[in-house]
Amino acid sequence: MWIRSVIGLRKFLMPASGLGLNVIRYNIGGGDNPSHHHMRFGGDVPGFRSCENCDYNWTSDANQRWILLAAKERGADIFEAFANSPPYWMTNSNCSSGGQNNENNLNPDYYDQFADYLTEVVKWYKEEQGLTFRTLEPFNEPTTGLWHEFGNQEGCNYILDYLAMANVIDKIVAYLNIKGLSNTTSVSIADEGAFEGEIATIAAISTLQLIGDHALSYVSQYNTHAYFGNSRIPLFDMAKNDGRRLWMSEWGSWSSKDMSASIQLSEEILNDMRNLKPVAWVYWQVIEHAPNGTYGNEYGLIGADFSNSTISLDIRLSFYGFAQYTNFIRPGYQIISTDDGDTLAAQDASNKTLVLVCTNKYNASDIWNFNVSKFNLSLFNVYRTSNNNETLKLLPNTWNITDGILTYESPANSITSLIFNVTQ
Ligand SMILES: *[C@@H]1O[C@H](CO)[C@@H](O)[C@H](O)[C@H]1NC(C)=O
Ligand SMILES: *[C@@H]1O[C@H](CO)[C@@H](O)[C@H](O)[C@H]1NC(C)=O
Ligand SMILES: *[C@@H]1O[C@H](CO)[C@@H](O)[C@H](O)[C@H]1NC(C)=O
Ligand SMILES: *[C@@H]1O[C@H](CO)[C@@H](O)[C@H](O)[C@H]1NC(C)=O
Ligand SMILES: *[C@@H]1O[C@H](CO)[C@@H](O)[C@H](O)[C@H]1NC(C)=O
Ligand SMILES: *[C@@H]1O[C@H](CO)[C@@H](O)[C@H](O)[C@H]1NC(C)=O
Ligand SMILES: *[C@@H]1O[C@H](CO)[C@@H](O)[C@H](O)[C@H]1NC(C)=O
Ligand SMILES: *[C@@H]1O[C@H](CO)[C@@H](O)[C@H](O)[C@H]1NC(C)=O
Ligand SMILES: *[C@@H]1O[C@H](CO)[C@@H](O)[C@H](O)[C@H]1NC(C)=O
Ligand SMILES: *[C@@H]1O[C@H](CO)[C@@H](O)[C@H](O)[C@H]1NC(C)=O
Ligand SMILES: *[C@@H]1O[C@H](CO)[C@@H](O)[C@H](O)[C@H]1NC(C)=O
After folding, report:
1. Using 50, 70 and 90 to split pLDDT, how confident is the model at 293?
2. What is the DSSP letter of 341?
3. CATH fold label, 343-422
4. CATH 3.20.20.80 fits 23-251, yes or no
5. Cα(48) to centroid(ligand 2), Å
6. Which DSSP state fits 106?
7. What InterPro entries does the database record attribute to this sequence (predicted)?
8. Which atom of ligand 11 is nearest to the CA of 399?
């Protein structure tokens, strides 16, 4: 059944434009030592206190502030603040990209000031901008060992220093209380690079275990990045067991001109949704500096040359590849099981819409036969992104359902979203 022009339905099924994302993570800058010049473009995030005796300067970080508030205006409704590094003047190395020889870098004399700083930013946004961060995350990949002085982006190691992390959490909770924020903002940790793995000490699950029950009792949400690890299942089990919200808070892949970045992105989403089962899946990052239309060395779904006074946006194929998910599997949808590893299935809360996102990662076309006999499907739309100039393209009728079996042929290296109306 094909009805092309049911305006109300299409409006319901698809956001007007863009990716339709509703979660935004705001990077509370440390700000680097003003005498240092070693960060890549965008690697140092302007802080709000540029020295120990300086006042807070709320005109700082104008660009990111603009994006945050513009996202809110456009419908983003879940906000998290996180820090890659404390301000340089709270660190051992006097540098916000990390310590000398990759050593741990938060000066122990500054646990209190770091917590005060982060919560002051949260308070300012709430009271002055009407924006409430639901969670505050003080760490980023704290035990991966990646962060060193004179590096190209902000970072701070806490290797085997679970006590320092626990202290920071304690102080944050105290300040959230003092500042009247504890009803609206809670703590999330630890944004490790891996969910679980051979090098256990850099994995989300071990940091959460080793940080101690006292600190963990203050934490409402477990965040993990999905770059590394063996099995995603133990962290899901732990979050479930502990009654904590679980986020896949960061993943990204190199950009590409063809579908390969989209396929990689899709495979990650499929694996994460199937095994880690986070309630939010957050991409790093939507737009990145890519001088002169170059590709490869960054993660942007959109590339832009921010050093050029004329900023033109290069909307990449991976933007549409991601939109194949985000435009249709909307907040509140429930992921339902399928026995096909290349397909993600979801239903809206009222069970009136069924979405299948199917990835053909192969270099040849593939015919899918889905047994959808348990659903009473009336009409549906199909969108596809592929190497053949298809960017979220609404397709003509290329499928059929016979005796409960939906047959659909996908071209090589493509992602297809099938959106059904379900009648009860
Ligand atoms: C840290 O850097 C600041 C700014 O360059 C400088 O004023 C200060 O003396 C430095 N502190 C140390 C301990 O080197
Ligand atoms: C506050 O930050 C803005 C933006 O970076 C800067 O132009 C201004 O000089 C700063 N004010 C002070 C008092 O440092
Ligand atoms: C937090 O919420 C509780 C229960 O709703 C309320 O009694 C308390 O006054 C609130 N505290 C603050 C600081 O808003
Ligand atoms: C971009 O192209 C312009 C003009 O050709 C050139 O001046 C500039 O160096 C290029 N920038 C980079 C980062 O390659
Ligand atoms: C700036 O962007 C414009 C428009 O895309 C382009 O023609 C020009 O070469 C760019 N300049 C540099 C220096 O990259
Ligand atoms: C939707 O379906 C799920 C299981 O398939 C069920 O648990 C849930 O109650 C249904 N919701 C409604 C509103 O019917
Ligand atoms: C598809 O072709 C590319 C380029 O020839 C190759 O690198 C890749 O491994 C192939 N993918 C599969 C799934 O066969
Ligand atoms: C489709 O699935 C149903 C159970 O949901 C089953 O009864 C039926 O035999 C299946 N059809 C085919 C062709 O396998
Ligand atoms: C399927 O939907 C149609 C149209 O609403 C309805 O007539 C039919 O009774 C439904 N069948 C089942 C098994 O629910
Ligand atoms: C995509 O569209 C462009 C411009 O319309 C055309 O030149 C190109 O051949 C098309 N590529 C494919 C793979 O269809
Ligand atoms: C159903 O769709 C498939 C895939 O597009 C096609 O090969 C097949 O011929 C179609 N069957 C009917 C009966 O239309």
Report:
1. confident
2. T
3. Immunoglobulin-like (2.60.40)
4. yes
5. 9
6. B
7. 6GAL-like, 6GAL/EXGAL, GH, Glyco_hydro_b
8. 2
